[in-house]
Amino acid sequence: MYDIWFYIFFWVMGVLFAFPILAIGMVWLFSQKPISIQEPTLQTIQILLSTIKTKQGFDAFLRKFLKNFAVIPTDEKDSKFWFALVEKIAHSKFLDIDEVSELRQELENANSGNEKQIADMISGVLKTRKKG
Fold this sequence. Notes:
Shape: rod-shaped
Distance between the termini: 91 Å
Structural class: mainly alpha
Largest sheet: none
């Protein structure tokens, strides 16, 4: 079709123009900081709980809480804070009694050694809810 020099010329031009672009792209790629995703803490979850205004927002919050904090923390201070937070969640106006009992069951399943504590705490919340 064409002379061999035609193909050699265009291959050389392609490599000469593409190499600097690829090199700059690789330098830029490796110079970027890695994206860090921060895991939520109990304190951020508590702040998030206080800002909820709708049932849909509460359901999203509850899914996030159960995904990240279904298991009681091992630290004693954090475990007390966790129980206080679960009590606030169970006492929420967005949960009816059936949903609170489902929450209790999920938490008991995730914390095999502390079923009694969780059941006592949530039953106490349900007793105070019935009075109010």
